[in-house]
Design the sequence.
């Protein structure tokens, strides 16, 4: 059984290929009856897990369009590179004070930043010093299975070997300083379902004025 | 209390009562209105103030939030550059007026504190605020170290939350004062906090605030979330508390607003003062007005009352004019008229009382008063009182009636007034005028009297009548005949009577001939008392029987020995008794005593007849025969033992009744004798009609029997004629032996007189009864 699935491919494979093993469907709710998109769901198998085969490093572009970082959340593997591209007609002052990687670029309209190699696992929040509502999160993960929830708040895992898994969720709007939500699920022939209800803070991108309350 | 005072007091008391009541009413209404107004203002004001506080805290939070987005600060925080963080926090704290800035980690631990009061790593005391800050900036009012702060907590985004910044902005007195200004409320504003056990203390106060917190605590009030009345510093407040947005970890903090009722009433103080002044002014004006009105009512009444007192004491001078309109004026006018009417009537009555209606002259009282006034108390006063009488007046009345008499008197009065000169003419009695001549002596008085006589002597003429009034005048002189008006009047009347009786028409009073002296009246009183006390005595004059020379009868004669005057002559008091109507009592006493004496003598064997004198008045008494009969039977005395003697004059008056009485006496068996026979108008012809058994020849005929042959012949004729007609004959007043011898010779039955014996007491006369030999040769020697 093919267990080294590139996480980008995994989703694709899960849809196109018949599952040769178990399937896990993770549903994420925002606690208010809405779907929680842009959550990062990580799977860890209990017991002796076979090491996940490393894929080749790649460069991902975070676009800046209409004073918005696109996408909001991007998953990286250690060693990957990120390039910030300014598609707006204003300058952007991209910065990060994250422990995993801190940087600072002033990018003129139409320009791109030099590639930044993300070699440490961790979450890197990136903002624009000129536009407070611009924020994106670079999630550098070495988890065996990792996926981002879609607009419906779903993250599906296919082709999982039967076994017991730890499901861990991260979301940029989770209350900081708290342990990450985590559940244990047994995956076998039947598709397993896990639902997380996440008490999310307000979306910092939506609120143009943060002092409103 | 005077009418005026009472009226004024009533006015003033009513005014004051109404004003006080109104004042209390207005104060009560105003106070309630202000409490309601205070509650309304407080409710509105408190909400406004809380809203303003919230607005301010929002603005402050915005400022803090902006600070938290400062890139350099965020970089320093993210890079854990503690000293930069602290200095940046201080710098930004000054910008927004925060007293204290804190950097708090997402785990709730304090990482930096500008006040250096808290050690690093200590937990932030208001975790609920820190927790809420991640959703939105948190702001609350908290109490710390006895002060109030807005505690504003905002997250630091880099760009995700990496820490929290807390800003402590003091909510102090100046802020509250600013709020107070902004809200424009005259309220007391105070921020209070609970220090435990229900005790509240203030942590900040606005201007002119009082210690509402301690007042609330002292009164034991809970937090007044509804408007409540509170007393603080001796003044009244409506208090209302509002809880502020607060941290659960902080002690409760509340905003208390106070609305001062007294302050609200303050603007009305001047109104109240003005009102009180108006009341005082109105009171004074009312008082003066009331006094004036009361005066206008009371003054005329007091004047009238004074006038009434004057009228009561007889002063009819016109009452002082009362100037008043309306009822009082009418009353005053009516009263004045009444006073005039009373004065006129009294004058009329006085005139009538002192004047004679027929002649218009003063009457006797007026004359007496005038004379008294002229002579009393005047040293050396003298004068003459002329009493003018008209002798023919009774005749005029009888023949022509009273109306003619009145006209005659009127005419006489007019003439008198004409001729009397300055003399005071008055009508003294119905038929007499008096003329008082002041300061006139006897000679002038007599001259005046004759002038008057001349004037009145002209006959009164009326149509075909001519009446001669035959005037006479009596004169009494002052002070010779009396120094009192009444005495002068009386004595001039006595003189007038004397003048009327004599040929001379003018007589001056002569005291010696005045039979009307006053002592006679007292004598009469004394006589009645003497009768009551049995002070009178009977003496008996014996009658000698000339045939056998024995005393066989006596005449009872009354004697009165007056305690003061001594012996009173019988003719005096008997005549007086006859005139004053006391003779019947006297006769009764004499009869009773005589009959008792006769019975006494009879008991001792002396059968003596007792003669008793009767007065003419006694014969008017139809009861006399019965009374004598009763006395006789009472004493068991025979009627034969009694002889009743009567004078001729007695039987001549009222003959019918007298004859009746005499006949009934004779029927009883009592002999009757005629006393003093021969001097009166009686005749034998007349006596024949009467039951008389005896005649007594008056002493006038017997006294000179010795020498007068005429008398002897007369007496002898009387004796012979009497005997022939069947009468016994007694001779009175026998005083000589010659008389008694002659009387024996001519056969007279009895002799009585001093020659035999005068009247003696009962025991003395009794001794004569037994005497048989009378020496008729010795006069007066028989006693």
Sequence:
């Amino acid at each position: 059984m093919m267990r080294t699935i590139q996480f980008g491919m995994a989703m694709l494979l899960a849809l196109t290929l018949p599952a040769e093993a178990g399937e896990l469907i993770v549903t994420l709710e925002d606690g208010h009856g809405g779907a929680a998109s842009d959550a990062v769901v990580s799977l860890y198998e209990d017991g002796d897990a076979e090491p996940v085969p490393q894929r080749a490093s790649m460069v991902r572009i975070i676009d800046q369009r209409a004073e918005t970082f696109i996408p909001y959340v991007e998953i990286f593997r250690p060693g990957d590179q990120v390039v910030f591209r300014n598609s707006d007609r204003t300058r952007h002052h991209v910065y990060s004070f994250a422990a995993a990687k801190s940087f600072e670029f002033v990018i003129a309209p139409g320009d791109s930043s030099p590639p930044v190699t993300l070699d440490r696992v961790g979450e890197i929040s990136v903002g624009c010093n000129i536009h407070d509502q611009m924020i994106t999160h670079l999630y550098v993960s070495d988890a065996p299975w990792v996926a981002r929830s879609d607009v419906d708040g779903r993250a599906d895992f296919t082709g999982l070997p039967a076994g017991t898994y730890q499901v861990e969720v991260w979301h940029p709007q989770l209350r900081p300083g708290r342990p990450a939500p985590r559940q244990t699920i047994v995956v076998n022939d039947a598709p397993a379902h896990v639902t997380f209800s996440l008490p999310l803070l307000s979306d910092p991108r939506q609120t143009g004025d943060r002092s409103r309350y | 209390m005077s009418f005026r005072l009472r009226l004024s007091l009533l006015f003033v008391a009513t005014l004051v009562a109404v004003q006080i009541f109104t004042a209390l009413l207005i104060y009560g209404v105003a106070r309630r209105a202000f409490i309601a107004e205070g509650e309304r203002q407080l409710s509105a004001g408190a909400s406004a103030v809380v809203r303003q506080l919230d607005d301010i805290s929002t603005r402050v939070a915005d400022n803090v939030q902006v600070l938290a987005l400062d890139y350099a600060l965020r970089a320093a925080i993210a890079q854990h550059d503690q000293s930069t963080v602290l200095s940046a926090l201080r710098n930004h704290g000054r910008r927004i007026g925060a007293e204290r800035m804190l950097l708090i980690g997402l785990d709730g631990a304090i990482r930096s504190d500008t006040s250096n009061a808290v050690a690093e790593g200590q937990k932030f005391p208001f975790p609920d605020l820190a927790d809420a800050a991640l959703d939105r900036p948190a702001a609350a009012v908290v109490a710390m170290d006895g002060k109030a702060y807005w505690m504003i907590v905002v997250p630091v985004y880099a760009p995700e939350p990496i820490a929290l910044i807390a800003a402590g902005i003091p909510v102090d007195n100046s802020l509250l004062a600013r709020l107070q200004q902004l809200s424009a409320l005259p309220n007391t504003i105070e921020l209070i906090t609970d220090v435990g056990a229900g005790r509240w203390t203030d942590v900040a106060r606005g201007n002119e605030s009082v210690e509402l917190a301690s007042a609330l605590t002292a009164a034991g009030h809970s937090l007044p979330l509804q408007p409540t009345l509170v007393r603080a510093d001796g003044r009244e407040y409506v208090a209302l508390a509002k809880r502020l947005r607060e941290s659960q970890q902080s002690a409760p903090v509340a905003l208390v607003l106070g609305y001062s009722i007294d302050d609200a009433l303050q603007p009305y103080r001047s109104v109240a003062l003005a009102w009180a002044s108006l009341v005082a002014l109105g009171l004074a004006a009312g008082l003066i007005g009331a006094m004036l009105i009361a005066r206008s009512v009371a003054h005329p009444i007091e004047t009238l009352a004074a006038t009434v007192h004057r009228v009561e004491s007889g002063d009819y001078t016109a009452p002082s004019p009362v100037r008043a309109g309306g009822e009082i004026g009418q009353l005053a006018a009516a009263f004045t008229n009444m006073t005039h009417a009373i004065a006129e009537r009294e004058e009329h009555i006085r005139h009538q009382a002192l004047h004679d209606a027929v002649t218009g002259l003063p009457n006797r009282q007026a004359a007496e008063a005038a004379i008294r006034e002229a002579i009393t108390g005047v040293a050396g006063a003298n004068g003459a009182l002329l009493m003018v009488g008209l002798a023919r007046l009774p005749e005029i009345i009888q023949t022509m009636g009273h109306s003619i008499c009145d006209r005659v008197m009127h005419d006489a009065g007019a003439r008198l007034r004409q001729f009397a000169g300055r003399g005071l003419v008055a009508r003294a009695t119905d038929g007499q005028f008096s003329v008082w001549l002041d300061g006139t002596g006897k000679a002038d008085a007599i001259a005046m009297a004759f002038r008057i006589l001349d004037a009145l002597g002209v006959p009164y003429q009326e149509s075909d009548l001519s009446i001669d009034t035959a005037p006479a005048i009596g004169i009494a002189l002052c002070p010779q005949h009396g120094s009192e008006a009444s005495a002068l009047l009386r004595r001039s009347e006595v003189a007038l009577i004397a003048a009327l009786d004599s040929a001379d028409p003018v007589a001056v009073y002569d005291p010696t001939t005045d039979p009307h002296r006053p002592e006679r009246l007292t004598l009469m009183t004394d006589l009645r008392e003497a009768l009551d006390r049995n002070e009178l005595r009977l003496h008996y004059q014996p009658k000698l029987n000339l045939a056998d020379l024995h005393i066989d009868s006596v005449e009872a004669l009354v004697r009165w020995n007056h305690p003061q005057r001594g012996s009173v002559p019988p003719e005096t008091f008997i005549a007086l008794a006859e005139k004053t109507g006391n003779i019947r009592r006297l006769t009764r006493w004499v009869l009773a005593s005589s009959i008792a004496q006769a019975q006494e003598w009879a008991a001792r064997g002396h059968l003596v007849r007792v003669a008793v004198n009767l007065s003419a008045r006694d014969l008017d008494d139809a009861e006399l025969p019965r009374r004598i009969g009763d006395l006789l039977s009472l004493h068991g005395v025979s009627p034969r033992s009694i002889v009743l003697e009567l004078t001729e004059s007695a039987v001549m008056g009222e003959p019918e009744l007298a004859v009746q009485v005499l006949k009934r006496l004779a029927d009883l068996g009592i002999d009757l004798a005629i006393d003093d026979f021969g001097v009166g108008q009686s005749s034998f012809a007349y006596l024949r009609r009467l039951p008389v058994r005896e005649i007594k020849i008056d002493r006038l005929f017997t006294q000179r029997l010795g020498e007068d042959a005429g008398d002897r012949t007369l007496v002898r004729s009387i004796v012979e004629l009497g005997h022939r007609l069947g009468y016994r004959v007694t001779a009175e007043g026998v005083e000589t032996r010659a008389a008694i011898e002659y009387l024996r010779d001519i056969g007279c039955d009895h002799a009585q007189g001093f020659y035999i014996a005068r009247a003696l007491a009962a025991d003395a006369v009794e001794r004569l009864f037994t005497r048989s030999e009378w020496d008729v040769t010795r006069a007066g020697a028989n006693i």
Remarks:
- The interface with chain B takes residues 95, 97, 102, 125-129, 132, 134-135, 137, 172, 175-177, 201-202, 204, 210-213 of chain A (CB under 8 Å).
- The CA atoms of residues 26 and 151 of chain A lie 13 Å apart.
- The two ends of chain A are 53 Å apart (CA to CA).
- Chain A has one helix and 16 strands.
